[in-house]
């Protein structure tokens, strides 16, 4: 009995390692398909919102999901155009921002004067603690000044922006493939229940499987749809803050903040760092960047601790520790897309494990309150 359980554990670990290796090696093929399935779940949840529109409540599911897909495409098209236009306008201005940063670092860490001053003796330093502190401060200032000079002379910020623009173009190709997959999946959504019944044969098995897919669609779709609305609210608030403070390309930074907010816990604060650092380069001082960082962080805290818990409620019943571990695993496999999809993937895993008596305890351990 004990040996059988040990064998089962090692077998499960081996399967997990092989599946992880497959996901890592087949990223270019699997990621668009998985993203299309997640997008279909968003459309499934959005179709319920479309059904509330007068005159569309009695329409078939595929038509409402198609209308939701058109809305998503329009939103993505508008965001992409805005991002490309902002980056194209940003690139010519980068040399000005680079000079502002150089002047700021030069003001903070002026080059130490050379010549005429010999090295202090050890006895002099030991006799005066303040001399030790001054000497250490001078050494740190010199090191930082040399690093800043080397950074701004060797790093071509304009080339980095061009690289970012080309990455955005490749992302457009990935998005096209994902939407193509989602469109074909959408065309098969009406016949999917019949396929399940024919595949599993017995009514109890097919009903259990369909109930599992229904719960996955409901939980993941509700989570992603609600999270998208929260991110839009956060992006609009940050856009207003940046516009009032006069930070350029506020729409670009608002979109970046909204997208990174899909990453649990750390994404929102990483998103705030981008406009804050850009504000330092734009103004060449710390006053406006610090004010912007404080206001955007306050917005993050209010939305993350008050608005988001009320809107998401119990749609994703995952332990915070499990979320952190899944974030580390999926981000190591797929980078930023994996970090964004970490919560949906782990939720799907918990739901699947909860449908079988043998794996139900594992699902309970993954959940926040043990109620699966």
UniProtKB/TrEMBL annotation:
Membrane-spanning segments: 7-24, 30-50, 62-84, 168-187, 288-307, 327-353
Subcellular location(s) per record: Membrane
InterPro entries found in the cross-reference section: AI-2E-like
Mode of membrane association: Multi-pass membrane protein
Keywords: Membrane, Transmembrane, Transmembrane helix
Main location, first listed in the record: membrane
Residue ranges the record marks as coiled coil: none
Transmembrane helix found in the keyword field: yes
Keyword Kinase appears in the UniProt entry: no
Family: Belongs to the autoinducer-2 exporter (AI-2E) (TC 2.A.86) family.
Protein name according to UniProt: AI-2E family transporter
């Amino acid at each position: 009995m004990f040996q059988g359980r040990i064998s089962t554990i090692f077998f499960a670990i081996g399967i997990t390692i092989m599946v992880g290796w497959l996901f890592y090696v087949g990223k270019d093929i699997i990621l668009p398909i998985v993203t299309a399935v997640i997008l279909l779940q968003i459309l499934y949840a959005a179709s319920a919102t479309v059904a509330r529109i007068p005159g569309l409540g009695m329409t078939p599911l595929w038509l409402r999901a198609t209308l939701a897909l058109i809305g998503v495409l329009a939103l993505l098209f508008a965001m992409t155009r805005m991002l490309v236009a902002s980056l194209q306008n940003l690139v010519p201005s980068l040399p000005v921002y680079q000079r502002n940063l150089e002047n700021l670092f030069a003001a903070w860490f002026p080059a130490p004067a050379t010549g005429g001053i010999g090295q202090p003796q050890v006895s002099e330093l030991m006799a005066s603690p303040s001399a030790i502190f001054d000497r250490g401060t001078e050494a740190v200032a010199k090191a930082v000044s040399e690093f800043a000079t080397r950074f701004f002379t060797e790093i071509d910020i304009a080339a980095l922006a061009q690289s970012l623009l080309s990455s955005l173009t490749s992302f457009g190709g990935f998005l096209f493939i994902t939407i193509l997959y989602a469109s074909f999946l959408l065309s098969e959504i009406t016949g999917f229940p019949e396929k399940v019944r024919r595949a599993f044969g017995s009514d109890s098995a097919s009903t259990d499987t369909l109930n599992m897919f229904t719960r996955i669609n409901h939980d993941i779709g509700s989570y992603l749809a609600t999270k998208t609305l929260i991110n839009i609210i956060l992006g609009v608030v940050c856009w207003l803050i940046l516009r009032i403070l006069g930070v350029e390309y506020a729409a670009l930074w608002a979109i970046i903040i909204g997208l990174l907010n899909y990453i649990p816990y750390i994404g929102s604060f990483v998103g705030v760092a981008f406009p804050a650092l850009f504000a330092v380069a734009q103004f060449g001082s710390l006053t406006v960047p610090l004010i912007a960082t404080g206001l955007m962080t306050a917005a993050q805290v209010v939305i993350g601790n008050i608005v988001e818990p009320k809107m998401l409620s119990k749609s994703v019943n995952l332990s915070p520790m499990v979320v952190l571990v899944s974030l580390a695993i999926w981000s190591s496999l797929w980078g930023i897309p994996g970090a964004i999809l970490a919560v949906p993937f782990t939720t799907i895993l918990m739901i699947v494990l909860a449908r079988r008596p043998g794996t139900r305890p594992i699902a309970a351990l993954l959940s926040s309150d043990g109620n699966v």
